[in-house]
Amino acid sequence: MLPQDSNAPQTGLGPIGTGPIPSSPPVSDGPNPSFGPSGSNTSSGWNGGGENGTNNGREGFVIAVGVLLGAVLVLGGLFGFQRWRSGVDESAIESIQAEESTGNPGNGSVENGNEAAEEADQDREVDEEEPSNDQSDGGQLTEDPDGDGDAESTDRSQDNLTPTECPAGISSEICNAVRFVEEETGRPFKNFPVVELLENDAFDAEILKDFAQYEEDFNEDEVPLKAMGLLGSDISLYQTYLSLIELGVVGFYRPDTDQLVVRGGELDLYGQSVLVHELVHAHDDQWYDLDREDFDNDDAEAGFAAVVEGNASRIENAWIASLSPEQAAEVDLGALAALSPDDFTKLLALPPVMIQLQSFPYQDGEVYVAYRTDAEGESVIAELYENPPESTEQILHPAEEFQPTIDVGLPPADGEVAFSGTLGELYLSLWFDQVAAAGWGGDSFVTWSAGATTCMRVDIAADTAEDLNQIEASAQRWQGSAPSEDRTIERVDTADQSLVRITSCY
Q: Which of 215, 201, 204 is nearest to 245 (CA)?
């Protein structure tokens, strides 16, 4: 799987952004960079410098960056991405279920939000007393109907939910969106979220104000991509993202400050869909804390980002599914209208790997979260946040039994190590073919420079001996596509492991 690089400055998540890409907004619906090995979506939470892979403050960069460019994926249809009206691509879920040997785990459902929206439009009286329901157990509400102190778990239900009171002066669009998120999740907001609507100049200034601090991280993240031949050696990852940061970003959420911002002074239907996505981030942050730094590696952080974005995309698409066909079409038109002809040109000029990495947390994340909720119910969301996936491999194969990642030590470097990390299956699937990548069991890499030459060396372990053979064969095909002394492949066998070692310089 490909690693995700969406680290936010100092916070594991950073701004989660959304932009004009049908049904694929980032945690903050906006520039959600997320690039780099060991994560998904182009994020790279590499460990910086030193033989031991010292972090150098990169924690959260993967999520922060991923957050910034996610919105660009609003052009999903243009790049062959499909908008999932029902909240997720049903064919993807059916395909996953067909592979299971234990049978169908059960049908999930996405509630229709029309009735909820109509009720939210009316003046509603809210009980000011503390709700009697104990909402501490996962995504389910618990009741004590007998009054004996023993709470009984029930499925989420609008009848059990005491909605958060909408403060005076808040627009009906915001109040309705908050109510929808509460009903879909079965949990109220702990505090009514503060939503900022900023006009273009103020919005751009806000989203760009902290971006320069990521330049060094981007420079590190581009090394593995260039070594794999996925990014041109003359392309600056930082400059590419900088030029796109204002492109189609229409909203973002910052877990470290609870800041939720949507572009524009008014909310049309497209803006409301973005708002719902960002509100899910705010809601999940209140209940589960999205501002994290305790990830084992970048691939694990990418897996977490896929849960964050996948859940928000799932509920955003449930909101879109609650609209009439005409209104849903208006959402799509609004997404496209957010991009100028020049914006389209810039998007089409993006390296394909950037689009692939950026789409991972939204699309694969949504399939993963929808699969889990279909099989286990809404309460599984709490479990996913408490014990998030350890790798992008789990996101890419939701129906398969989890196999712990194989611990692979750092390979030797032919110079001073610049930084080190984990690529993960996500990156491997972009580098090689998906069949070979599916056998990924673990990896570690190092980078170094010698004069004008920059190199990466990665050791890859596989689930089985046959999987390792497939990875080696795929690597040899990659090597043969551009024969060079700068690309070498070898088998490394130790007493404990058999690895494929790949060295690439540019």
A: 204
Whether residue 71 has pLDDT greater than 50: no
DSSP string, 377-437: -TTHHHHHHHS--SSHHHHH-TTSPP-PPPP-PPPP-SS---EEE--HHHHHHHHS-HHHH
d(CA 243, CA 435): 35
CA atoms lying within 13 Å on the CB side of residue 63: 36
Cα dist from 250 to 17, 75, 188, 348, whole Å: 8, 13, 25, 19
Q: What is the pLDDT of residue 415?
A: 97
Instruction: Specify the pTM.
Output: 0.75
Across the chain, mean pLDDT equals 76
Q: State whether residue 278 is helix, strand or coil.
A: helix
SS3 for 85-106, per residue? Answer: CCCCCHHHHHHHHHCCCCCCCC
* CA-based nearest residue to 474, from 440, 443, 442: 440
Query: 300: Cβ–Cβ under 8 A, 6 or more apart, which residues?
Result: 38, 388, 389, 390, 391
Per-residue pLDDT for 52 more than 80?
no
Bridge partners, 77 (sequence order):
none
Give residue 487's pLDDT band: very low, low, confident or very high (50, 70, 90).
very high
* Contact residues for 290 (Cβ-Cβ < 8 A; gap 6+): 12, 13, 16, 27, 255, 281, 284, 308
Q: Is the pLDDT at 68 greater than 50, yes or no?
A: no
Q: Residue 389 is encoded by which pair of tokens?
A: 């996936």
Residue 31 — φ and ψ, nearest 5°?
-60, 100
Cα(249)–Cα(26) distance, rounded to whole angstroms? Answer: 10
Q: Where are the domains of the chain?
A: 419-505
